[in-house]
Amino acid sequence: MAMPxxxxxxxxxRDLHANPELAFAEHRTAGIVAGELRRSGYEVTEGIGGxxxxxxxxxGDGPTVLLRADMDALPVEERTGLSYASTVTxxxxxxxxxxxxxxxxxxxxxxxxxxxxxxxxxxxGSWTGTLVCLFQPAEEVGAGAQAMLxxxxxxxxxxxxVVLGQHVAPLPAGLLAVEPGPAFAASDTLRITLHGRGAHAxxxxxxxxxxVLAAATILRLQTVVAREVPPTEGAVVTVGAVAAGTVxxxxxxRAELQVSVRTFSExxxxxxxxxxxxxxxxxxxxxxxPRPPDIxxxxxxxxxxxxxxxxxxxxxxxxxxxxxxxxxxxxxGSEDVGLLARAVDAPCVYWLLGGADPALFERxxxxxxxxxxxxxxxxxxxxxxxxxxxxxxxxGVRALVAAARTWLSPSDQRGDQG
Length: 418
Ligand SMILES: [Zn+2]
Ligand SMILES: [Zn+2]
Hints:
Structural class: alpha+beta
Bound molecules: zinc ion
Strand order of the largest sheet: 1-2-6-3-7-18-8-17
Strand content: 25-35%
CATH class of the largest domain: Alpha Beta
Helix content: 25-40%
Order of helices and strands: HHEEEEEHEHHEEEEEHEEEHEEHEHEHH
Number of domains: 2
Oligomer: single chain
CATH architecture of the largest domain: 3-Layer(aba) Sandwich
CATH topology of the largest domain: Aminopeptidase
Number of helices: 11
Shape: elongated
CATH superfamily of the largest domain: Zn peptidases
């Protein structure tokens, strides 16, 4: 397979964009990453947690800084019309053929971190400490960070003093955004199987209809956020998929709901999960279901909590490379980067990198107008999501370099805090 010229970041980006790989299948990407890290002088370990790659540059005494990027793409058929658009298809977990696209911009993250790794290695006379550049698989299924931890990540690399990273977003390119405190929501994915009793469609009196049970359950689940969570707290309960029945003249014996839950505090998370279970069980009982529902946790990862002190410390570095640094408010999207920090009790600073063409914004000086415009543009996971290459890549590389230097700088005694 042809490998891209990694000396040109834009070309590398276009190559990664055109060759996306699904979660835990990032073999080509990981190979490119490992090769480029080795060329820059890093000690490279491949295959951590499946396809994870870590490059370590030990450069004398000082703190250890972990820079993180994710590498996986999504089962989305690209419709951007870009010259470097993906035409890749792959088989998903269920064996169906799906289009594959870097619809979340992890190709931006990978490219920027390779650029930053190269710059910091080339300039290693100006800092001391240990730099850990981590490329994780499978962020989209919420499993990659945990897989790397389970595979002994921190037995293989030194525990970091801080975890830094970024996510591209449809904010104007040139802009960065960082929210202290809860920044990205916790994400829980549940599969609820509701049991009914099958029968002929003409004899409902002999059935427990799982379609009606599912409908009642779905509607009642909407009351969790509307009627139980305090209005001052944020939470989302979305039933993203429902499956029941096959034909009109048969009452089936089961229905399956897939539920996505987003919350920002452990307290609300526990409250929402308990309410979902109570409602699923209660509706099943109300329907005289032959047995209680099966409730299975499919994925779960905690909220990303940006350490407020660490954000304050890093913000000037971000401001020095961006047109502006704004506080975007908590995002209901989720990220597993927080696990890498939480596992070693290190502070995390995870910011948003503007990637939308600034020309699409009429008023860049008016935050409310910018936010309103962001909501109209294709967002991450859209088949039309198309970050502009520049200035996105340049700002993304500079942000990582500047943020890392803030923590690596030997002249700053706070740098060796745990
Ligand atoms: Zn995503
Ligand atoms: Zn993402």
